[in-house]
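ingest -> validate -> predict -> emit
validate: passed (alphabet ok, no gaps, 124 aa)
predict: started
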Amino acid sequence: MIRTETIPVYGMMCGHCVKAVMMALESISGVQGVQVSLEGCSAEVTFDDSAAGPEQFREAIVEEGYSLTPVVEENPAADVPAAAGEARPGESAAGGSISNFALSGMSCVNCAAAIEKCFRGAPG
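emit:
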């Protein structure tokens, strides 16, 4: 029997994320159609329930690096002591200064590359 199931997907930040989720779901045998909504944080999957099921879709989403529940923002870098011989926050071995920023919302290589490109283009 053909069914449609809507599954929450959290952590998507860009078109690359949407495509990654879509491809992961489309690769499952029995899936006949996939629509992924970045704004709606969801994936709508049309499938043959004799060949595939919602649990497979949830597993594929998680394996792709996304979450089924809203992501809680944390600052894991806070209060991390420097190892012996490493520069502490605000110091650089080359004599410059280092700034640490708490970033949220990066979920793919393209997101990280865009942020790195912005910083590389800044003076200093």
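The CA atoms of residues 78 and 111 lie 22 Å apart.
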